[in-house]
Design brief:
The structure is a single chain. The chain contains ten helices and 16 strands. The protein is of the alpha+beta class. Helix 5 packs across helix 6.
Length: 424
């Protein structure tokens, strides 16, 4: 019927009713996404400018790109040619174009405008690289919710921060709507980026900790940090030390400082040199290596006769690697591990104090942090002074830049104390 047809088509508009889509809104809708998002003078700025060189084709073009029939490059190729130090590959230049960070001024005096990737600028055209230089303004809850754990900043610079993740808080991707995560909490406790090219709208974690595990976690504040640190963690370059309390005694297995190579050390020599022990039990059919040492053990009046404090260094990144190696190989599960502890009726794994596993020390190669500048002449340890975090509390700022002569490499070391529950 006609009434049903009208209902399906929507309400009728009379002669005086405003048009559903104005000319301005229609024009804006057809602009590239980049052009629609450039009206942000408070958060974006021109960070570099250059000129489109003449496209020399396969013979004259140092990048090997052949020009089209009109003698021009497409915008991504022109961007790579104009800013070779900022874009190592054509793929990174394409991403910048898709984000609307490349503006083109074809004529002298013309206002640069973001263009689509298929635009072909003329040789001599001016390109401007426009990037976010400030983080989004955080709508801070005042006061901060009393029932939400707080982040403590252990280290921070203009590009990244190392925070202490509370146990029980997910790194990203909360399981319930409106649940707090480290990614959501970070803008409240880290300093916002100001005049820093490539600033992210909000800090972004570059690796993860299990929700039940607390300790040091790295978050990126700029795109450069997200790329460089993300690549470093993917390649297993940073070194992490975890501290855990195991239920049970490990007998005479004691060790102290970590050494670089323990693969060819015999048991007797290991005991004499006091180096860590190695667990290489595969998990889920994949190679898996954990180094560990006993710090101390003590009697316990709970479910276990003794408990053991250990340091653990994961050399691979398998899911729940430390928890499984402790429970399945050492036969001494981490206290509070309700998933992998033995279930024989006598030993209940649940613990009201949570999981006794904490990321206490982190080594990040300075090669993954190019913003820290070149290597200084003095290669000794350089402590970095602490500062108050965003909530005015003094954090456990024990971070240092140092040079490792054996590896000929600079490192940033950040560490925190054991959580109070470890002393109970």
């Amino acid at each position: 019927s006609s009434s049903r047809r009208v209902a399906r088509l929507g309400p009728c508009r009379g002669p005086g009713a405003p048009a559903r889509r104005t000319a301005a809104s229609s024009h804006r809708r057809h602009l590239p996404r980049a052009a629609r998002s450039m009206a942000k003078p408070s958060s974006h700025a021109v960070v570099d400018s250059g000129e489109v060189p003449a496209a020399g084709g396969a013979a004259g073009d140092p990048n090997g790109f052949a020009a089209g029939e009109d003698g021009k490059w497409n915008l991504a190729e022109a961007t790579l040619a104009a800013f070779p130090s900022r874009f190592p590959t054509l793929a990174t230049a394409r991403k910048a174009v898709r984000r609307g960070e490349v503006a083109v001024a074809d004529a002298d005096g013309a206002r640069p405008t973001p263009r689509r990737g298929d635009f072909r600028p003329s040789p001599g055209s001016r390109l401007e690289l426009i990037q976010r230089v400030r983080s989004n303004k955080t709508e801070v809850l005042d006061p901060y919710p009393a029932d939400v754990p707080k982040l403590v900043v252990a280290y921070e610079d203009d590009h990244c921060a190392v925070v202490v993740k509370p146990e029980g808080v997910a790194t990203v991707g909360a399981s319930r709507k409106f649940e707090w995560t480290v990614e959501r909490m970070a803008p409240y406790f880290t300093r916002p980026c100001v005049d820093t090219p490539g600033a992210l709208a909000r800090p972004r974690p570059v690796h993860r900790l299990d929700q039940s595990t607390g300790g040091l976690l790295v978050v990126a504040k700029t795109r450069l940090a997200a790329t460089e640190l993300g690549r470093a963690f993917e390649n297993r370059e940073p070194r992490k030390r975890y501290r855990a309390v195991l239920g049970g005694s490990l007998g005479g297995f004691f060790g102290v400082p970590l050494v670089s190579d323990v693969s060819d050390v015999s048991p007797s020599e290991r005991h004499e040199r006091k180096v860590p022990y190695v667990i290489d039990t595969p998990l889920s059919g994949k190679p898996c290596v954990t180094e560990w040492r006993v710090v101390r053990d003590a009697p316990c009046d709970g479910r276990y006769e003794r408990v053991t404090l250990v340091d653990m260094w994961p050399k691979t990144g398998r899911t729940h690697q430390l928890r499984r190696h402790a429970a399945e190989t050492l036969r001494a599960p981490i206290l509070g591990d309700a998933r992998y502890a033995r279930r024989d009726g006598k030993e209940a794994a649940a613990n009201e104090d949570g999981l006794f596993l904490w990321a206490v020390e982190l080594f990040v190669p300075v090669s993954a942090m190019p913003w820290l500048g070149p290597e200084p002449e003095n290669k000794k340890e350089t402590p970095r002074s602490g500062s108050e975090n965003a909530v005015g509390e003094k954090g456990p700022r024990r971070d240092v830049l140092f040079y490792d002569d054996d590896e000929n490499k600079r490192w940033l070391r950040v560490r925190v104390d054991d959580p109070p529950k470890f002393a109970r």
